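Lecture notes, part 5. Sequence design as translation. It can be helpful to think of inverse folding as translation between two languages: the language of shapes and the language of residues. The source text, in structure tokens, appears below.
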């Protein structure tokens, strides 16, 4: 079983404007849509699309939390969200008007008692299961939240995946996560420099392996992905050709595709192929890609 943790999921309200955004004036919508968001939720959704057993964990609050949970279940996703008493599940407003403007909500208040309930859930994760931690930590939680989760799972035979940035990522490497997935910008920021080419990227990825990461998957936007596996292999794959329509969720889809490919075959090349196919298909779609779109790209990689 693959469990994902989204500490602060959201409903993304996407608005298409008829003309460029006019601050302080009247703006008319040409269309609206909503998506159930949060990085871990995205990973679970794509895993579900690819036929993998997955459970989405995290926190929700208020009637918006009820709606998010109900909507995900109607999409066929298994959720075990914990309901918290204070605040409301956030709405993120994304205004598309030539360029994209975002206003992200803050989300509910998560207390120590709420985290204790999450830890109790995680105690039910079994050896051989996979746990995915994705995204930033809400301001109401301490900076060592991910460290606390991985420390609790240490020695229990659970594969862990961390998709986070900065110190949030670096501080969990000592727990030897199975997979980390920085993008090339995040990887460069960890070392305080701009990375130029595969040689730079590989050197920095190897440094993270020395700190504890078993496999390092670096997403390279339109240039595909680079993977350093724990056996010393270096794998590089370019993206298929296509028109980018949406960047939201592409990295999450890559994580999901990689895990699905790895669990099916135990082969890093196959895992990387499916990861790149899922990430690219999502970038070429308005939302998370469906199975048909992913499989179509997989055939040409």
């Amino acid at each position: 079983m693959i469990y994902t943790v989204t500490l602060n999921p959201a409903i993304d309200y996407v608005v298409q404007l008829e003309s460029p955004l006019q601050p302080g004036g009247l703006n008319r919508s040409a269309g609206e849509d909503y998506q159930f968001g949060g990085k871990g939720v995205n990973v679970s959704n794509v895993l579900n699309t690819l036929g993998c057993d997955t459970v989405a964990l995290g926190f929700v609050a208020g009637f918006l939390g009820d709606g998010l949970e109900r909507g995900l279940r109607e999409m066929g996703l298994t959720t075990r969200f914990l309901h918290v008493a204070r605040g409301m599940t956030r709405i993120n407003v994304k205004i598309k008007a030539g360029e994209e403007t975002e206003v992200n909500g803050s989300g509910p208040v998560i207390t120590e008692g709420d985290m204790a309930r999450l830890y109790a859930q995680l105690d039910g994760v079994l050896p051989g299961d996979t746990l995915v931690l994705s995204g930033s930590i809400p301001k109401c939680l301490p900076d060592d939240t991910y460290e606390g989760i991985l420390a609790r799972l240490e020695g229990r035979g659970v594969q862990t995946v961390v998709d986070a940035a900065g110190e949030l990522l670096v501080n969990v490497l000592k727990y030897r996560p199975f997979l980390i997935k920085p993008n090339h910008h995040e990887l460069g920021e960890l070392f305080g420099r701009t990375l130029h080419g595969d040689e730079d990227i590989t050197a920095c990825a190897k440094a993270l392996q020395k700190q504890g990461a078993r496999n390092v998957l670096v997403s390279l936007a339109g240039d595909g992905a680079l993977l350093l596996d724990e056996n010393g292999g270096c794998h590089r794959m370019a993206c298929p050709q296509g028109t980018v329509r949406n960047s939201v969720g592409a990295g999450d889809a890559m994580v999901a595709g990689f895990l699905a490919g790895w669990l099916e075959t135990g082969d890093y090349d196959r895992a990387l192929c499916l990861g790149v196919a899922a990430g690219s298909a999502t970038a070429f779609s308005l939302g998370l890609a469906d199975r048909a779109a992913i499989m179509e790209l997989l055939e040409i990689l």
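The translated text above is only one of many valid answers, since several sequences can fold into similar shapes. Residues 250-265 form the longest helix (16 residues).
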